[in-house]
Amino acid sequence: MAVEKMSIAKALNESLRKALEQDPKVLIMGEDVGKLGGVFRITDGLQKDFGEERVIDTPLAESGIVGTAIGLALRGYRPVVEIQFDGFVFPAYDQIVTQLAKMHARALGKIKLPVVVRIPYGGAIGAVEHHSESPETLFAHVAGLKVVSPSNATDAYWMLQQAILSDDPVIFFEPKRRYWDKGEVDTEAIPGELHKSRVVREGADLTLAAYGPMVKVCVEAAAAAAEEGKSVEVLDLRSMSPVDFDGIQASVERTRRLVVVHEAPVFLGVGSEIAARITERCFYHLEAPVLRVGGFHAPYPPARLEDEYLPGLDRVLDAVDRSLAY
Q1: Do residues 136 and 89 make contact, with C-beta atoms less than 8 angstroms apart?
Q2: Is 130 a catalytic residue?
Q3: What is the pTM of this model?
Q4: Among 130, 131, 195, 297, which one carries the catalytic annotation?
């Protein structure tokens, strides 16, 4: 067993390094991923060790980056594309939705596109406009795409490798405010299923379900609730498409209450689908309606207002109290 304590950023870097070592067809592409090592240094040192033909600095052209990755995948490569910030992905949205997501079905299964699109997402870093958004539901809605997000260093290390090995395109959302959170990573472990949820903290009275940056907030909320005698289970969803509805159902059948938490706006967010499905599946188990906590249905605000916009401990605990009051 090889256990090492590392940040999520370091775990992603080590994961990319291992993928490059194991398969010469793995390529990394993106703006400033080479000499600079990425704005968050996720690809730091990789161009130096693997060369400019495998770690490629691209022009500032997201549509061209993803389009080129699609062409490379058609020729047998496994491109890993970095979108520098969440709000920069939209020039490439057409390529992702109309080509990357559809090619497998269009070719009746004869063509596979093993492309990973890495997107740092979410707020709480004090950034300017277009640097703090959470657009995951736009991709989860599109058939043909897998959409995942790690919340800790272990998942960052293993989920990225699993995404690269997938023959289907994967949109890999990285919670940028958690990049420097550290955890122990067993680099020789047998990873769990990519789209399987995980119980982070067991509880009996209510389930908090979250992914990416909000998992840590939910763990803190569960700890605060415990001081008041409330037993709250925390479920890390890990995948937004497909969603592990069986895992959520199993948790809700134990706790009989569910609150879904994400940074993205509540309106038509991933939590909306989860609330609808779990209401259908668990109608006779639920003792309260499924509640949702998230951002407001408004453009992401200037940095000095983001603490008011983002769901924090108080808003999660308020939802816990409202659910338990039924």
Answers
A1: no
A2: no
A3: 0.97
A4: 131
